[in-house]
Design brief:
This protein is of the alpha/beta class. The chain is built from ten helices and eleven strands. It has helices at 21-31, 43-47, 124-132, 152-167, 185-195, 198-202, 227-233, 269-280, 297-300, 312-322, and strands at 8-11, 49-50, 59-60, 75-83, 91-97, 104-110, 136-140, 173-183, 209-215, 255-260, 285-290. Helix 4 (152-167) packs across helix 5. It starts with 7 loop residues before the first strand and ends in a 6-residue tail after the last helix.
Length: 328
């Protein structure tokens, strides 16, 4: 059993002054939300870009995290807008360590956005962060509601994994060391790929998922109470089968599950419930809670600019390393 597989950790974060007006604006907006919200009403502010009708370019509050001075320097973006499927959402980016030591483990990161918004460009800082720690990192777009509903966005993530299987060697990655990570709705997507092998079978992916990191993910949300969830999952033939907590078995991959204790959007009980279910089936799980951290801080703290807020990058990398990711 891996270290931490039967423990909970609450990380106490010393609060420091907000670094810039952008983050201060986001913090004030977050605090104005009703605590009843699960995945609703944050709009593009929390989950991606803000675009005026007819605008050609999205202006995102993630932009400050993606300027060169705010990102890790030990990495390179080698692939930008590579097609893995047809259509404008079938594109992905690839980040690599600047000074690799042999074949590197591969991390497929899936961003969130309530399944109806999000752009891979908003998460450049995540790609650079993990690449600087030794992972060839892939971040792809996927089709969104209302163009598609469940399970199409999961199939898109599986097709990304098939692209990884077929192509990542050209970028210095070892496809046999595949790890998944995701935030919010992206954490749901990543976890579902690990719990339901049907998606990889459909995409003809033969790779094994070595481990998954889910950050602030929704894993137990049926009945579908909120509009965004109903729009994404309301047409599912078997609604209960969409819930990760109902799909765990003894063959599920090891998982790192984390939430911010200040998250009013996806409540930490989701992490707690899935972690408990994994333990019931003797699946290794590292369960973490970050005091004073909200829904978006858990992912923005991966970036160099706000890493002082929570050790999410260090904790996830250490988790993957405990599974052999960085072994020679």
């Amino acid at each position: 059993m891996m270290p931490g597989s039967r423990q909970k950790f609450v990380v106490i974060v010393r609060q420091k002054p907000i670094l810039n007006d952008c983050f201060s604006l986001y913090s004030k907006f977050r605090m104005s939300l009703s605590r009843r919200h699960f995945l609703g009403s944050m709009g593009a502010l929390a989950f991606g870009g803000m675009m005026a009708p007819g605008a050609a370019h999205a202006v995102s509050l993630m932009d400050p995290f993606n300027v060169p001075a705010a990102m890790d320097s030990g990495s390179l973006k080698l692939g930008d807008g590579i097609p893995y499927a047809g259509g404008p959402r079938g594109l992905l980016d690839v980040y690599v360590p600047r000074n690799p030591r042999g074949r590197a483990p591969v991390l497929q990161f899936i961003y969130g956005g309530g399944w109806n918004r999000g752009e891979r460009a908003d998460y450049n800082f995540v790609g650079h962060a993990y690449a600087s720690r030794g992972f060839v990192t892939v971040i792809g777009d996927y089709r969104l509601v209302p163009e598609v509903t469940y399970p199409a966005f999961l199939y898109d993530a599986a097709v990304q994994a098939k692209w990884i299987e077929d192509n990542i060697g050209a970028f210095g990655g070892d496809a046999n060391k595949l790890y998944l990570a995701g935030h919010s709705a992206g954490a749901y997507n990543a976890v579902m790929l690990g719990l339901d092998p049907a998606f990889f079978r459909e995409a003809r992916v033969s790779l094994k998922i070595r481990g998954i990191a889910g950050l602030a993910g929704p894993y137990d949300f049926y009945p579908f109470e909120y509009n965004e969830v109903r729009e994404a999952f309301g047409y599912a033939a078997n609604p209960e089968g969409t819930q990760p907590v109902r799909l765990v078995n003894e063959n599920s991959p090891p998982m790192f599950l984390a939430s911010g204790l200040g998250d009013p959007i996806v409540r930490p009980i989701n992490t707690e419930t899935l972690a408990a279910r994994l333990r019931e089936h003797n699946v290794p799980v590292d369960e973490r809670y970050y005091d004073g951290i909200g829904h978006m801080e858990i992912v923005t703290s991966i970036g160099a600019m706000l890493r002082w807020r929570a050790p999410v990058l260090e904790d996830t990398v250490n988790f993957f390393a405990s599974l052999g990711a960085l072994d020679a």
